[in-house]
Specification:
By secondary structure, the chain is α/β, with parallel strands linked by helices. The protein has 28 helices and 25 strands. It folds into four domains: about 5-225, Glutaconate Coenzyme A-transferase (3-Layer(aba) Sandwich), CATH 3.40.1080; about 240-335 and about 430-625, Glutaconate Coenzyme A-transferase (3-Layer(aba) Sandwich), CATH 3.40.1080.20; about 340-420, no CATH class; about 650-720, no CATH class.
Length: about 725
């Protein structure tokens, strides 16, 4: 880290000048993924290189955020008002604009190690320059690629203290990169670390807080503040809710939870909240859907169906907004502490968070402190609130209100004095450790609105702390009791291998990110379990296919690391099972339209007996059946499309659904669809459609083209409803 106070500048071009002066014209610029990028610095550096071929610039990052871009006039009518409302003012990346237009200059290279799902499928350049790396190895790989400039977005101290800043949304890789770059500097290598202040960024605590002298230069001018990129809530489908409901029964009270962003994570949170707040209806749903009937033993062994009396602790690489929902609903409340001995006492119920006079003796007995207190012992007791001041430790004496006492717990006067100054409850506990965050605007608003004490419950730290046990295994193992690491995959083979990041063609869909880390950790923890969520089917160009396949040409998680797989049709516990039983379990939770072909493939390969038949109860796995079973509960207000709200209006939701269905119909029934659209020219539009046409500015067509678009929208709305 920088040894002196950073240079604070008010002009982004000065930042670029300093980079060139410090490291020269060969620049390898690293940025954290998603929200934590210094957008103005990145743009200024890229444009300088674009206009000066003598500069050799490589940008290595992940998830370069982009505003949605409409692909047609109709999409533009729907999207443009949404983009203006949600993303107005967000500073877009100039290098991404040129990458999309295939106009990157030859002296600039863009490499990413994680992407928006499907975002680069049609970009040969991005596919060729993608770096496949494990999340916890990303910094190592950046260093190997010659990283010499690091930049990130930072939050100013809320009290105006210039000596402290917060990495806020992205200490994930930056903390480790600081250490590595300092080591490189000691070897004589030139490097530079830059921060860009943004007052819209929530000031998060934990390891995210660093001294400003960690930076060589800080771009510090309110003129460079910009709105944070928002990720609006996606609709939670019936299948997603079913997956979430199944997963919710596998979470143990007093346990730990990791989930990710998106509709599947929302489905899990909705299921957990239903379990905790509406337990009677929750258990009725489990019974009606035969979840408890089929998986009683597994649920009793690793999960539960009762309320969360002890609560959960979050250990998640991504602090998603539903963790705030779980916190608000009294589920995320199990605090952990950064001391292995203290955590052990809590886990074994030797102590609780309520402080009693027995604490001091217990701490001595379990070798957390000494009978004759050292200065470190004194600081520990003060840190965790076991004793409260005003105290001072000096030369083996405790100074309290002018009186001096031997720092010796055998001394009765000392013990009596300390017992008079015991705290009420332990301090410094956190309910969630996360490494980065991104989400909807109301998520950022909720974090910013939290008082300091409450915000400190959400500790943001490096990915090397959250995503692995290495480095402090004893503490992390004790914190992550009954860890449930819930991840999503695209496909699963009948032998239990999971496909999550790439197609068999080699085209990257997203990236492995931290998935392997959580798989490994789930297997390393004695009471940990990995839960892979797989939607049973996918739809492409109007054709439905199974996501449970016999084999596939790419694997993200090998089959020997299989554990639990959940689809909307149930749970498959695969850990320790033989191949035949793995196949049988996955067939039971696959869509019934594909079960016969999958079973025949398994039989032809000799992996299951030729006489085997799928149980009758599992041969009714259809979307219609689960839709019917959930209907009574939807009528009661459960399993909503947007359980935690949405940035979209109801009109926009209706229009988006209709236009999506239209696109599918054009692919599968082109002639019928065209005929239906033509028919709208000669029919009167129903009155309920009028506000939707107005939203699309098609209520009063001004030309033939708009009349055609109006007919398209009317047809789409009629078909969807």
């Amino acid at each position: 880290m920088a040894a002196t106070q950073p240079e604070r500048v008010r002009d982004v071009e000065t930042c670029v000048d300093r980079i060139l002066e410090t490291v020269g014209r060969k620049i390898v610029f690293g940025m954290p993924l998603a929200l934590g990028k210094p957008n103005h610095i990145a743009n200024a550096l890229y444009l300088r290189a674009k206009n000066n071929p003598a500069i050799d610039l490589t940008i290595i990052t992940a998830l370069s955020l982009e505003k949605p871009v409409p692909s047609s006039n109709l999409e533009a009518r729907l999207l443009d008002p949404i983009v203006k409302r949600i993303w107005d003012g967000f500073v877009e990346f100039e290098y991404m604009k040129d990458l999309r237009k295939k106009q990157l200059p030859e002296n600039v290279t863009i490499s990413e190690f994680f992407t928006k799902a499907g975002g680069y499928l049609n970009s040969p350049y991005a596919q060729q320059h993608y770096i496949s790396t494990n999340y916890t190895h990303a910094v190592r790989d950046l260093i190997d690629n010659g990283l010499n400039v690091l930049g990130n977005l930072i939050a100013p101290h809320p009290g105006g203290n210039p000596d402290l800043v917060s990495m806020s949304c992205n200490p994930d890789l930056v903390l480790e990169a600081f250490e590595k770059l300092l080591a490189e500097k000691k070897k004589g290598h030139k490097y530079m670390i830059l921060g860009q202040l943004n007052s819209n960024l929530p000031y998060m605590y934990g390891d995210a807080v660093v001294e400003s002298q960690a930076y060589d230069m800080i771009l510090d001018d309110p003129a460079y503040d910009f709105p944070l990129f928002s990720v609006p809530k996606a609709s939670v489908s019936t299948a997603d809710h079913m997956i979430g409901l199944n997963v919710s029964s596998l979470i143990r009270d007093n346990g730990s939870l990791q989930i990710g962003i998106g509709s599947l994570g929302d489905g899990i949170a909705a299921g957990l909240i239903m379990r905790h707040k509406h337990n009677k209806h929750y258990n009725q749903a489990l019974s009606a859907l035969n979840i408890t009937g089929r998986y009683t033993d597994l649920i009793q062994k690793i999960g539960g169906t009762g309320t969360f009396e002890k609560g959960l602790y979050g250990a998640t690489e991504m602090l998603v907004d539903v963790f705030i929902q779980l916190y608000k609903n009294g589920i995320l409340k199990r605090k952990v502490y950064d001391h292995a001995g203290l955590q052990k006492l809590l886990n074994e119920k030797i102590i609780t968070e309520s402080i009693t006079p027995q604490f001091l003796n217990i701490f001595v007995e379990h070798h957390i402190i000494h009978e004759r207190l050292t200065k470190a012992d004194f600081r520990l007791l003060m840190k965790y609130g076991v004793i409260t001041g005003p105290f001072e430790y000096m030369d083996g004496q405790l100074i309290c209100q002018g009186e001096s006492f031997p720092a010796d717990l055998v001394n009765e006067q000392t013990l009596e004095m300390l017992n008079r100054h015991l705290g009420d409850r332990l301090k410094e506990g956190v309910v969630c450790h996360g490494s980065f965050f991104i989400g909807p605007n109301d998520f950022y608003d909720a974090l910013n609105a939290m008082p300091e004490e409450e915000r400190k419950l959400f500790s943001v730290t490096g990915v090397d702390y959250v995503n692995q046990l290495y480095g402090d295994e004893k503490l992390k193992t004790r914190q992550r009791t009954h860890g449930r690491f819930v991840n999503a995959g695209m496909m699963v083979t009948l032998l239990g291998a999971v496909v999550s990041d790439c197609l068999e063609s080699g085209n990257i869909v997203s990236g492995v990110g931290g998935q392997y880390n959580f798989v490994s950790m789930a297997h390393a923890l004695a009471d940990g379990r990995l839960i892979m969520m797989i939607r049973s089917t996918k739809k492409s160009k109007g054709k439905v296919s199974s996501n449970i396949v016999f084999n596939y040409g790419h694997t993200t998680i090998p089959r020997h690391l299989r554990d639990i797989v959940v689809t909307e049709y149930g749970i498959a516990d695969l850990r320790g099972k033989c191949d035949r039983d793995v196949i049988a379990a996955l067939l039971n939770i696959s869509d019934s339209r594909f079960q016969k072909d999958l079973l025949e493939q398994a039989k032809r390969s000799g992996k299951i007996e030729t006489t085997y038949e799928i149980p009758e109860t599992c041969r009714q796995n259809t979307p219609e059946r689960i839709q019917n079973l959930l209907s009574p509960f939807k009528a009661q207000g459960y399993f909503l499309n947007f359980p935690f709200g949405t940035d979209y209006t109801q009109e926009e939701v209706t229009l988006a659904k209709a236009l999506k269905l239209l696109k599918e119909n054009v692919t599968t029934h082109r002639i019928r669809t065209i005929a239906g659209i033509i028919g709208q020219f000669f029919s009167r539009s129903p009155l309920p459609i009028a506000p939707l046409l107005k939203r699309m500015k098609l209520d009063i067509p001004k030309c033939l083209r708009e009349r055609v678009l109006r007919a398209v929208v009317v047809y789409a709305l009629r078909r969807s409803s």
